[in-house]
Amino acid sequence: MPTPTASSDKSTAASRGRNVASKPLNAAAASATSKSKTATPVSATDKTSRTPSESSNASVKSSTSARNGKVGNEAASTSRTPSETGFKVTKLSSSTVTLQTTWSPKPISEPPKTAAASSSGPAPTQPSTNASDPLQLAAQVYPWAYMSSTLDACFDNAETTAKNDLEGRAKELAAEESEAADKRERLEAERSIEFYDELGSDAFATKAPAIMKLFHSHGDACNRIETEALKLAMRDAPDPPEEEPLKVYQDMLSDLEELHTEATSLQESIIELTESTATSTDEASQQAEDVSSARSQVTGVFSACLPVLRARIANLSMAQELIDSALENVSLGLRMESMGLND
């Protein structure tokens, strides 16, 4: 059984706990509470003040827990949570009760925007997300720049290689052309020497020049005699009668016959010369097919004279026929005149 003194001590401690729980017990708790309230300003709408009923209820509950608990830890476990009361019992003794505040200020929420604030000015525009990033541009440009520089380097190398090849080939061609030019000059000189050697041989030294001179002189004589024969054939009877009117026609016929014979002989000489040259050329070609003879060059010149000689022979034959006809006409006229048949 508890003694009366013990019960009186407990009632005294309980009444003292009730008085202490109704207000802050020490100056440290009061100063912490005042600092937390003054550090964070709040609006009138956000402040929440405790009612007297709530504080009295807290004091009653704390006194009840102090009365029923035997130790400080049991009293703390039976008390309300710190978020509801704002205080936490840290020490309980027969003489004093120590409370520690656990209240923390709530964050101040931004006041809602009014219509006036929203209409006062346009909202700040966000930076355009479509703008190209410099790093993105660099990433796009770099492959093209690398490819372009690589291609330029390849082109430069190819151009340099091509130029070097062309220069080397040009030098080779120049050397080959110089050798070919030397060979060409040597070949032309050899042909000229062969030509003059052939001209200095017996066949060309005696026959070819004489035949060529006779050809030119025969041409001049044919032109002159043919002109005279044409004039003689077209001439009328002379006004004073000649003593020998038929002698002119007979002389012309003899000149024409001489030229005709000379032309025939010249033609045979040229044919003989060309045939001998062709034979010697065939023999030379059998010995050396690539070597050209000077006689082949001369053969072409004399062969071109043969058609001219054939034309001269034909013209001389026609002139002879014309003079023969004129001679017959003149002789017939003389006979008729001698017979007195002319008027």
Topology of helices and strands:
Blueprint: H1 4-21, H2 27-39, H3 52-68, H4 72-78, H5 82-85, E1 87-92, E2 97-101, H6 115-120, H7 134-199, H8 202-206, H9 208-233, H10 247-287, H11 294-338
Helix pairs in contact: 1-3, 3-4, 9-10, 9-11, 10-11
What is the number of helical segments per DSSP (H or I, 4+ residues)? 11
Low-confidence stretches: 1-8, 17-87, 115-122, 286-292
Distance between the termini: 222 Å
Regarding quaternary structure, how should these chains be classified?
single chain
CATH class label of the largest domain? Mainly Alpha
The assigned CATH architecture of the largest domain is: Up-down Bundle
Tell me the radius of gyration.
77 Å
The overall pLDDT, averaged over residues, is: 69
Number of domains: 3
Q: Report the principal-axis shape.
A: elongated
Under CATH, the topology of the largest domain is which?
A: Methane Monooxygenase Hydroxylase, Chain G, domain 1
**What fraction strand?**
under 5%
Task: Summarize the amount of helix as a percent range.
Answer: over 70%
Extended strand count: 2
Most strands sheet? 2 strands, antiparallel
Q: What strand order characterises the main sheet?
A: 1-2
Q: Which H/E pattern describes the elements?
A: HHHHHEEHHHHHH
Structural class: mainly alpha
